[in-house]
């Protein structure tokens, strides 16, 4: 017995001849993928293997298909199943994106004739209440600040200060998560 030595590489454990197997073992190779037929299902073109097996080794094919449940279904139904799985997967990714912090984007713009404003976008993705944040900025800079859609517009150009103030007020936002988009073009 070699089991003890081979403990770390169990894929190659050889336990000696098995009583339920007739020796020498006849390995059946697939004419489509050239692998032993047991490995066909790992071949990307498994569907073509199946066709080859069904034609050339009908007995073997039946054995391989036995007990596979759903895979015995017509290919149309299998396709439908795959599609459904893919759809579910995409949904999960989307939902995750929504709650993940997206980073902040700061920019400045000119409103009216010579009025400069600073626009803060992305705070909501950190679950920060925009109204409260807007109030905080207004107090901090002694200026007007308002919430429009998912952005905060602060009167005046305070962008440089924000790089220090935001991570200080909300430690979950790192300075590296804040992008400077510069001046917004109309
Ligand atoms: Zn094959």
From TrEMBL:
NCBIfam families: DRP1. Pfam families: DENR_N, SUI1. GO terms for molecular function: mRNA binding; translation initiation factor activity. This is Density-regulated protein. GO terms for biological process: formation of translation preinitiation complex; translation reinitiation. InterPro entries: DENR/SUI1_TIF, DENR_C, DENR_eukaryotes, DENR_N, SUI1, SUI1_dom_sf. The gene is LOC115224250. Residues 83-97 have a biased composition (Basic residues). Residues 68-102 are annotated as: Disordered. Residues 104-170 form the SUI1 domain. It comes from the Eukaryota.
């Amino acid at each position: 017995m070699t089991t003890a030595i081979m403990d770390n590489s169990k894929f190659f454990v050889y336990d000696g001849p098995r009583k339920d197997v007739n020796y020498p073992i006849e390995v059946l190779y697939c004419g489509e993928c050239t692998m032993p037929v047991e490995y066909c299902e790992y071949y990307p073109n498994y569907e073509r293997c199946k066709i080859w097996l069904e034609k050339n080794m009908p007995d073997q094919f039946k054995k391989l298909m036995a007990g596979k449940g759903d895979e015995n279904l017509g290919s149309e139904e299998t396709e439908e199943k795959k599609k459904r799985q893919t759809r579910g997967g995409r949904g999960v990714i989307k939902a995750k994106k929504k709650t993940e912090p997206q980073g902040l984007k700061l920019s400045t713009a000119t409103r009216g004739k010579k009025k400069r404003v600073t626009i803060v976008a992305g705070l909501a993705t950190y679950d920060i209440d925009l109204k409260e944040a807007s109030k905080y900025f207004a107090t901090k800079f002694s200026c007007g600040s308002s919430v429009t859609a998912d952005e905060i517009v602060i009167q005046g150009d305070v962008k440089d200060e924000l790089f220090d103030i935001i991570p200080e007020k909300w430690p979950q936002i790192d300075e590296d998560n804040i992008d400077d988009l510069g001046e917004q073009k109309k």
